[in-house]
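Question (not urgent): is this output format expected?
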Amino acid sequence: MMMKKFSINILAILFIFGIFQSCDKINAPYLVKQEGDTPNPQQATRKVLLEEFTGHTCPNCPTGSAEVHNLENIFEEQLVVISIHAGNYAEPQGGDFTYDFRTPTGNELKNYFEPSFYPSVMINRTEYNGSTILFIDNSQSVIEDILALPADAVISLNNDFNESTKELSLTINTEFLNDLSGTFNVCAYIVEDSIILPQINNNENIGTTPTIFDYVHMHVLRGAINSTWGDAINEGSAIASGESYENTCSTTLLDEWVAKNCHVVVIVTNNESNEIIQVEEVGVVE
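Got this back:
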């Protein structure tokens, strides 16, 4: 996959390498096959990732997040959400807005996909009408179209969290259900729910204006466990139905994160198109 070059300062580099640990992958070809265990695509559930670009000083963003919440009510467990705080609206300000949800991973995603308006969303990082960046109002039909397709893979997650040390170990098993061409990556992210901090707001139907002081921030991207773009799953140019691949990752949660409110979101992406073919989510504390 062709990536844009980014200028990352030394603090961001230290953050990435000091906090998040890269995945420990099984040696090539990473393949784990179970004899007589043939996956059944019709029993698998396709899920969709919605990535929301937002910020705490964006006055329209509470309305956008409310619409995302409505989509969650419609699609329930088939929809996974990450809120990416990046760009001008996510920069710390004075007064009640000194906090900072920006991350190197969120900045990298924002710089690569280049959202030109806030709030905006990506659905499985797939292009629709020539753009990966969509208005939230247009999301429901796009999600419905994707969910109408058969699942191409199933992701199974097993996590081990040490509450004393805040160390998290994750085992990811990706089982492919159809023959696919291309190379694929697996990416693991940390998100946190229920962070109560002020948010600029211009919609009285959502909350007080111009500021909601007890706003509940959900799905906040905290970082990537195995880098923004993840680790390679396969080394060839094709995957056969029934093949299974395993990756392991580990990281340590920061002290200010509330572990019971944190989740791991894992995606499998096509390297050439950036398209997400499957997503799965698991709580850090199960």
